[in-house]
Design goal:
Blueprint lengths: L9 E6 L4 H12 L3 E6 L2 H15 L3 E5 L5 H11 L3 E7 L14 H29 L2 E6 L12 H20 L5 E6 L4 E2 L10 H5 L6 E2 H13 L4 E2 L3 H12 L2 H15 L1
């Protein structure tokens, strides 16, 4: 089993492509010869990345500046997607908030839900019929290890990511035998390979470097898992440890501890 091969008529669409995991996956796919549709809010950043990837790898790179928290903009993107053959979809865009739910800005919380969950739901539905009809395609939705358990002071983010986790894994089983791969990426902490000391968080300073996974390593591991149609990929040693602990530790003990930490982040 493998990813759909690069073709001149086909595109991989990546949301959240202007930074982090989304950008790293876009770079890896371009290196493999795939044409790209890059989606994020920042038009200038997308344009610069598109030119870089086209010049380096000769692939066609389209940019679609879109605020995926806005229903009308998602609708416009889906209409545009209908004019292209989308062979790979990576839903990577997402935001988070920290602190008590009732203290959060309601507009930000509703946008977070729309971006993290509703956009993933709609874009996945938009590409699936054509993929199944062709008998070929690949979808990677970025959930989170945070979606494995209740986390006070991170309630909206956990709500969205728990949904993405179970939605994607459910589709993985539904799509068996169709030729369409569906993989959940459930990362814990991921970061740049090098972080200036003045920009390091308390977590960066406490956790040894060898436990982290970089965006680049995350992208490589994710695309390998997607090519094998694995149900879930958890990249990096720290993420794997967090994932394992969340599945065996008592919720009554672990959730308050996580909630205390996330309140500090808020």
């Amino acid at each position: 089993m493998a990813l759909p091969p690069p073709r001149s008529t086909d595109y991989a669409l990546i949301t959240g492509a202007s930074q982090g995991i989304g950008e790293a996956i876009a770079r890896e796919l371009a290196r493999g010869g795939h044409n790209l549709i890059l989606v994020a809010r920042r038009a200038e950043v997308l344009s610069a990345l598109a030119k870089e990837l086209h010049d380096a790898h000769g692939v066609d790179v389209l940019t679609r500046p879109t605020d995926l928290s806005e229903e009308e903009e998602v609708t416009a993107l889906i209409e545009d997607m209908g004019e292209h053959t989308i062979s790979i979809l990576v839903n990577s865009a997402g935001i988070a908030s920290f602190g008590p739910f009732l203290n959060q800005d309601w507009d930000y919380e509703t946008r977070q839900f729309a971006l993290n969950a509703t956009a993933v739901f709609r874009l996945t539905h938009a590409v699936l019929p054509a993929m199944v009809q062709r008998g070929e395609g690949a979808i990677c939705n970025v959930g989170s290890a945070a979606g494995n358990l209740p986390i006070p002071n991170n309630a909206t983010y956990v709500f969205t990511k728990a949904g993405v986790n179970t939605f994607t894994e459910s589709l993985h089983y539904e799509l068996k035998g169709t030729g369409v791969h569906c993989t959940l990426l459930a990362p814990g902490p991921v970061r740049e390979a090098q972080i200036p000391e003045e920009e390091q968080s308390i977590v960066d300073k406490v956790v040894p470097d060898f436990l982290w996974t970089t965006y680049e390593d995350c992208a490589t591991e994710t695309l390998e898992a997607l090519s094998r149609n694995r149900r879930r990929v958890v990249p990096g040693p720290l993420s794997k440890a967090m994932n394992a602990i969340s599945q065996v530790a008592p919720t009554a003990a672990l959730s308050p501890l996580m909630g205390w930490f996330y309140r500090k982040m808020g």
